Amino acid sequence: MNENVWEKACHISPSMITLDMCNLEQQCKLVEEAGLEMIHVDILDGHFSPSMPLGLDTVKQLRKKTNLEFEAHVMVTDSQFFVDELIEAGASQIVFHIETCDHVDGMLNYIRSKGVRAGVALKPATPLCELEYILDKCDAVLLMLINPGFAQVKGEEQTPYSARKIHELHEMIKVRGLDTKVILDGRISPENIKTFGMSGEANIFVAGSTCIKKENPAESMKQLKDLEDQINSR
């Protein structure tokens, strides 16, 4: 893990499952060539969310073929097995869902004891009060702006309270004087990145199909890198 990478104010992290799944090694090279430094690894179990697009063995093979930072989002019913596998795979950061973990504080301690950045993810309707006693231990908090498993549902949009939740989380972090990174995931658009990146209310933006065009991913990623640089130079 390159610690200097995580010190930057803004990162745009292409979602691995949005890329061409039959050519992931080549797609990771496009991310690197664009100058982006991390990639978002969604691990789903088919239960927490009704899909299972990416296998752990694929992640382990890709880790050997790219220098990108792997920031992982564990969307599963039972986190421990998948967390262990991702630690072995060389993930730089792992966030797991607070709604499915029986011992959140313990899991954060466990991940960090392995030298990996740790954090939690919240579904749209999960209140921020769930973070009251653990925020200080979180290297990152991921806010889902759409409901998990509904990304392919036509017309599914970001929840109307997303902006309020982002603002309130930023204030919680600011009041406590923490360096916790805020990750936004779910229908993230260039406008979202400009709005919340420029305001400093979010730090990592998961770029999916709303940002990366399948017909020309290289150009899309170049534009995202330009936007990232613009925010980091503010």
User: What's the total helix number?
Assistant: 8
Distance between the termini: 26 Å
Q: How much strand?
A: 15-25%
- Give the spatial strand order of the biggest sheet: 1-8-7-6-5-4-3-2
Helix-strand pattern, N to C?
A: HEHEHEHEHEEHEHEH
Please report the first level of CATH classification, the CATH class: Alpha Beta
Largest sheet: 8 strands, parallel
Helix-strand category: alpha/beta
Query: From the 3D coordinates, which CATH architecture would you assign?
Result: Alpha-Beta Barrel
- The low-confidence parts are none
Number of domains: 1
Subunit structure: Homodimer.
Keywords: Carbohydrate metabolism, Iron, Isomerase, Manganese, Metal-binding, Zinc
Cofactor: Mn(2+); Zn(2+); Fe(2+)
Protein name: Ribulose-phosphate 3-epimerase
Structural key phrases:
Ribulose-phosphate 3-epimerase; carbohydrate metabolism; alpha/beta; 8 helices; metal ion binding; 234 residues; manganese; metal-binding
Q: How are the SSEs ordered, and which strands pair?
A:
Blueprint: H1 3-6, E1 11-14, H2 24-34, E2 38-44, H3 56-63, E3 69-75, H4 79-89, E4 93-97, H5 104-113, E5 117-122, E6 140-144, H6 162-176, E7 181-185, H7 190-198, E8 204-207, H8 217-232
Parallel strand pairs: 1-8, 2-3, 3-4, 4-5, 5-6, 6-7, 7-8
Description:
The protein is built from eight helices and eight strands; from the N terminus they run αβαβαβαβαββαβαβα. α6 links the parallel β6 and β7. The longest helix is centred in the last third of the chain and has 16 residues. Strands 1-8-7-6-5-4-3-2 form an eight-stranded parallel β-sheet. With 234 residues, the protein is of the alpha/beta class. 36% of the residues lie in helices and 18% in strands. α2 runs parallel beside α8 and α3 runs parallel beside α4. It has one domain: TIM Barrel. Homodimer. It comes from Faecalicatena contorta. GO terms for molecular function: metal ion binding; racemase and epimerase activity, acting on carbohydrates and derivatives.
